[in-house]
Each structure stands twice: as structure tokens, then as C-alpha cells.
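User:
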Amino acid sequence: MSTMTINPTFAPARPRSGEVRLTRRGRAVVLMAALLLVLTAGALLGGARSAATEHPGAPTPTRVVMVGTGDTLWDIASDLAPDGDVRAMIAQIEDLNALDSALVAAGQRLRVPIVD
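Assistant: Predicted structure:
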């Protein structure tokens, strides 16, 4: 008769009581839930900063100018600025055209405010 002995050092590892072990799928679910929570919070908090009002503003009357070779936004704004405040006119042109910088290219069409 043969007897089999069990060596306790080769027993499979078990999680300690109270310890949670996640599988690969479980980690993916937790990650997706966290991302969903962050995106939802961003959407809710981002909408709270709306600048919309009940009273519509008056649109700025504009015309279109084409940027010539060698023209800069400073040149165009200085021709348009009635009170000599070129920087304010540059800011207004950038806002009207959603420009990220004052760089313009020849042939580019810009909306500029109509100045009396």
C-alpha cells in the first residue's frame, strides 16, 4: 500500500479574507466606470459655465478683406482702428475669425468690423 503525502507548501494561493482580486475583465470594467464618471462630471460641470442669456446681442456688422502679400494682422488692424487702438482691433478681428494667433497668410479672407 502506498500512502500519499500532501506538501502544504504547494497549495494554491488564496486571497486573504477581505481582499479583492480583479480579473483582466474586472479591471477593464472598473476603468470604464471611472472614465464614464469623469466624463459625466465634466459634461455636467462644463455646462454650468454657459454665457447664454435671454437677451440676444446685436451682431457686429462686418465685411470681408483678403490678406495681401506681406500684410500682417497689425497692418490690417491699423487701417481699421478709428481711435488708434490697434491692439483692441486685433483682438476683435481674432475673435470674429476664431484665430489662435495673429499669423495670417496671403489670400486668407478675414471678417473685419465695419468702422464708420
